[in-house]
Amino acid sequence: MEKNTFETIDDYINAFPSETKRILQKIRETVREAAPEATESINYGIPTFKMHGNLVHFAAYKKHIGFYPAPSGIEAFKKEVESFKTGKGTLQFPLDKPIPYNLISDIVQFRLEENKSRKPKK
Length: 122
Fold this sequence. Notes:
Blueprint: H1 9-14, H2 18-34, E1 39-43, E2 46-50, E3 54-60, E4 64-68, H3 70-75, H4 78-81, E5 85-87, E6 90-94, H5 101-117
Antiparallel strand pairs: 1-2, 2-3, 3-4, 4-6, 5-6
């Protein structure tokens, strides 16, 4: 996909084929349910949820969904994410396998608690 500048998460999701669009929408709903008060935005050109700072980002690629819960969000779920490709703050969910929506929800809730416990920035 060519580099686009998206104004909203809807714009981002609508730029993808229907199957990928369905997965992205379900991830969005999963994050919303786990963190109902979080705000949506586009940061770094991808969907972002914020509450007391960045919570999580996600993005679609040709063969996977990138999920970005910060390094702590991966470290806290080391056992649960060991079957996925990971990097510093990055999780890759292959599009040809079921997306672990429950795991996404658990990670979002962890990140929410982590962000809430941080001292507010001045």
